[in-house]
Specification:
The protein is of the alpha/beta class. It is built from 8 helices and 6 strands; from the N terminus they run E-H-H-E-H-E-H-E-H-H-E-E-H-H. The structure holds farnesyl diphosphate. The site of farnesyl diphosphate (FPP) has 20 residues, from helix 1, helix 2, strand 2 and helix 3.
Length: 263
């Protein structure tokens, strides 16, 4: 079989992004929470002070997205590259993650939010792995919204692992399809993100959801993560509502559907 013969005809719009409550609202938003260090530095405080402020910013952001009808959020909390940071920062971030799960799980559960973690858990401490497992277990049946936290996450690693997993499951490497690969990603079962927001002003994805964000709109704001709030969320959603999503088709084809976004 040639590569060309394996290309799948995809429906327009793709099924994975159909089904939003409103066509102008993203179903799934990914957030690269950058700028904690600069926020702390501008206050002459250590980087961990910024990360603690970053944690405090999360709850109001979740609530604001939820209030606006966005029900799936993926937060980039710790990347596979973040291990290269100074030891005390890494240890502090790990401690913060554990403390945050301890402090927030019950209330998130009471609000019907399902907590999930994506990433390679094997390198995390045993206690943190257990906290993650318990938070996921407790909230597994919740249907209100999904909070997906990327911890020790790296997209390239995820894609390589997904490929290996598919092969271990019996897929002939030459028969691998996009759908089979996607079904082995950490995000299996979730729609792809429609919108990726990056705070802190840098225009890059930093190994975040590279596969899943293939058609995502990108919104970069100079606001540093601890300062990110309702105004920035409204700006991001307004930006998204104004985009014409073509998924590889032409403007004329989109116009023929009569919608700027999805059916
Ligand atoms: C990037 O800012 C931020 C991180 C590497 C960590 C993000 C983590 C949190 C907000 C806290 C933990 C999250 C949860 C879900 C409990 P940076 O340090 O690179 O900032 P800089 O670019 O200004 O230096």
């Amino acid at each position: 079989m040639t590569t060309g013969e394996r290309i799948i005809e995809r429906p327009f719009p793709p099924a994975a992004i159909a089904g939003s409550s409103s066509s102008l609202l993203p179903v799934h938003v990914g957030i690269i929470m950058d700028g904690n260090g600069r926020w702390a530095k501008s206050r002459h405080r250590p980087r961990l002070f910024g990360h603690r402020a970053g944690v405090r910013a999360i709850r109001p952001v979740l609530d604001a997205f939820h209030a606006r009808g966005v029900h799936i959020l993926t937060l980039y909390a710790f990347s596979t590259e973040n291990w290269r940071r100074p030891d005390d920062e890494v240890r502090g971030l790990m401690r913060l993650l554990g403390e945050t799960i301890d402090r927030e799980t019950d209330e998130l559960h009471a609000n019907g939010i399902q907590i999930r973690a994506i990433g390679d858990r094997g390198r995390l401490g045993g206690k943190l792995q257990e906290k993650i497992r318990m938070a996921e277990e407790k909230t597994r049946e919740n249907g209100g919204a999904i909070l997906n936290v990327a911890i020790n996450y790296g997209s390239r690693h995820e894609i390589v692992e997904a490929f290996q997993d598919a092969v271990r499951d019996g897929t002939d490497p030459l028969d691998l399809t996009e759908d089979v690969l996607a079904s082995h990603l950490y995000t299996k079962g979730l729609p792809d993100p429609d919108l990726i927001i990056r705070t802190g002003g840098e225009y890059r994805l930093s190994n975040f959801l590279l596969w899943q964000a293939a058609y995502a709109e990108l919104f970069v704001t100079p606001t540093l993560w601890p300062d990110f709030g309702a105004q920035d969320i409204d700006a991001a959603l307004e930006f998204f509502a104004g985009r014409e999503r073509r998924f590889g088709t032409t403007s004329d084809q989109v116009a023929a559907t009569g919608k700027k976004h999805r059916a």
